[in-house]
Amino acid sequence: MDETTPPPPPNEASPPPPPPITTSGSPTDFLKGVVGKRVIVRLTSGVDYRGVLSCLDGYMNIALEQTEEHVNGTLTNRYGDAFVRGNNVLYISAAEAL
Amino acid sequence: MDPSSTGIQEPFDLIRLSLSERVYVKLRGDREVTGILHAYDGHMNLILSDVEETIMIVDVDAPLEERRAVKMAKRKMEMLFVRGDGVILVSPPSRT
Q1: ipTM of this predicted complex?
Q2: pLDDT at position B5, please?
Q3: Strand segments (E) across B9-93
Q4: Architecture of domain A28-94
Q5: What does pTM read for this prediction?
Q6: A 19-58 → B contacts, CB under 8 A
Q7: Nearest residue of B to residue A35 by CA position?
Q8: What distances in angstroms separate CA B21 from CA B11, B16, B41, B95, one per listed residue?
């Protein structure tokens, strides 16, 4: 019966909230942040290496600990430590919260 | 940088700590070698001795997902120089 209260107007003006940003800053800041964390390193060949990032250098050479090699999602090898030559790296993905 | 237990500050430290040890090296072209590491440089050129090379021969006619080594060829070499640009991964012996 109360026809004085109109329905709330569709608020098409307000955009959807931005996705939560877990970290911000430069690529270098990201890389500094993931040292010591679990990461997934993908090579241009498509092979993934999952492990704890020990350190990396300016060529993106990477030292990993507790490394698992995954090809097409299946575990193919384990290495205690691994040095990955930087030119093969496609990306480094954080596998845990920063 | 990372004050973890290993005391590694840069990736090449991993290689330096593996001098005179047997290392596993994954190379481009579906090849692997294991050998005693004698020397390396910034390109990851390597000098290895007592080397065994494993060559995975893949069936290139198979679909990409099913492609796996159909044959493994092995050969031994006394002394080997590996050009750095062929190196994908080097794994030292497990340090415990």
Answers
A1: 0.84
A2: 53
A3: 22-27, 31-40, 46-58, 69-82, 87-91
A4: Roll (2.30)
A5: 0.80
A6: 35-36, 43, 45, 49, 54-57
A7: B2
A8: 17, 10, 16, 11
The pLDDT value recorded for residue A48 is 97
Do residue A63 and residue B13 have CB atoms under 8 angstroms apart? yes
Q: What percent of chain A has pLDDT over 70?
A: 77
CB–CB contact B4 A72 (8 Å): no
Interchain CB distance below 8 Å, B6 and A65: yes
Residue ranges per structural domain of chain B: 12-85
Q: What is the pLDDT of residue A1?
A: 47
A85–B44 CB contact, under 8 Å: yes
Q: Which of the following CATH numbers is that of domain B12-85: 2.10.109.10, 2.40.30.70, 2.30.30.100, 3.10.450.350?
A: 2.30.30.100
pLDDT in tens, B36-86: 999 999 999 999 999 999 999 987 777 766 666 678 999 999 999 999 999
d(CA A91, CA A93): 6
**Chain B closest-CA separation from residue A79 CA (Å):** 7
Handedness of CA A30, B27, B89, B54 (dihedral sign): positive
